Amino acid sequence: MYKVIATDLDGMLLNADHQVDPFTVATVRKLESDGLRFVIATGCHYCDVAGIRKLLGIDPYLITSNGARIHAPDHTVTHADDLPPAIVKRLVQPEIVGTHGRVIVNLFADQT
Question: Three-state DSSP class for 108?
Fold first, then answer.
């Protein structure tokens, strides 16, 4: 019997409209009540995924930011691999980002 289910969000827990279906919520809750643990692994930032965790009504481990952050079920950070500030400053310089508008920079500056 399986003990852990690791899943992405898009196309797995989220539907084509990027929403959580009631059927998915019921299924996830049933599987967890049967003893299965969940891990959500995604490229999204923790702040974006924490709300989905609330919708599901479970407390899974969250592997976020393409593996750069791992949060335990109690929301504590168990792993963080942040870019050094000097690299971040270099990446967001106008000559790197450009004025043509074809490069999008998402910068998260919080501690979660």
Answer: coil
- pTM for this model (two decimals): 0.81
Query: How far is Cα 81 from Cα 67, in angstroms, rounded to an integer?
Result: 8
Domains (range + CATH), the chain: 4-82 (3.40.50.1000)
The mean pLDDT value for 13-36 works out to: 93
Nearest CA to 79 among 92, 68, 93, 90? 68
DSSP string covering 19-68, please?
---HHHHHHHHHHHHTT-EEEEE-SS-HHHHHHHHHHHT---EEEEGGGT
| Residue positions annotated with a catalytic role | 8
**One-letter amino acid for residue 80 of the chain:** A
Q: Tell me if 41 sits within 8 A of 8, measured CB to CB.
A: yes
